[in-house]
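User: tokens in, sequence out, please.
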């Protein structure tokens, strides 16, 4: 299910301008967990860049490989990572999961990761997020509002977020338990490819 997004512009949320340097010279969009760090004033370790198709991802990977501002960090068949020499942030070019912004971001597990930064059709930057993104972020609340595509991954990530001070709401705990019951977990793909 594709969710409804709340839209903001960089003029409304000036912190977003920090990401502009990572949006140049490719057709991708930034989505996922980096916004938790950005809006909480924490250090951003990595930025995931998604694409509508694999050809755009490969083109971006070539740009990052050739740029003097980045150095290759690591790669596998689903992601290629490049370290920004100026900031130390790892840019993860995602090959393994492509699609339209709305479809990809709606597929993320927690509402605090359902956010992204993209260029719209007019070429302007815009930030789109789950309607409860800021409320759940400020309350350090982990909420699953939709289906869980990769239950074991979501279960494991909930522990990692607990280490950051975030807690699962009761309803989300039930969703994880129910999704793990009877699930075939061996060889299950993981939506989250990087070293998040």
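Assistant: Sequence out:
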């Amino acid at each position: 299910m594709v969710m409804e997004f709340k839209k903001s512009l960089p003029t409304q949320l000036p912190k977003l301008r920090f990401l502009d340097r990572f949006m140049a010279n490719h057709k991708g969009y930034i989505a996922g967990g980096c916004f938790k760090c950005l809006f909480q004033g924490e250090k951003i370790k990595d930025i995931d860049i998604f694409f509508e198709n694999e050809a755009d991802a490969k083109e971006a990977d070539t740009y990052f490989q050739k740029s003097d501002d980045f150095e290759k960090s690591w790669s596998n068949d689903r992601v290629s990572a490049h370290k920004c020499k100026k900031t130390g942030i790892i840019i993860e070019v995602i090959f393994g999961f492509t699609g339209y912004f709305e479809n990809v971001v709606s597929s993320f597990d927690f509402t605090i990761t359902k956010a992204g930064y993209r260029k719209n059709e007019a070429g302007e930057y815009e930030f789109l997020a789950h309607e409860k993104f800021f409320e759940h972020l400020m309350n350090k609340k982990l909420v699953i509002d939709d289906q869980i595509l990769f239950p074991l991954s979501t279960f494991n990530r909930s522990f990692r977020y607990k280490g950051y001070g975030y807690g699962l709401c009761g309803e989300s705990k039930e969703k994880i338990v129910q999704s793990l019951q009877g699930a075939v977990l061996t060889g299950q793909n993981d939506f989250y490819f990087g070293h998040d």
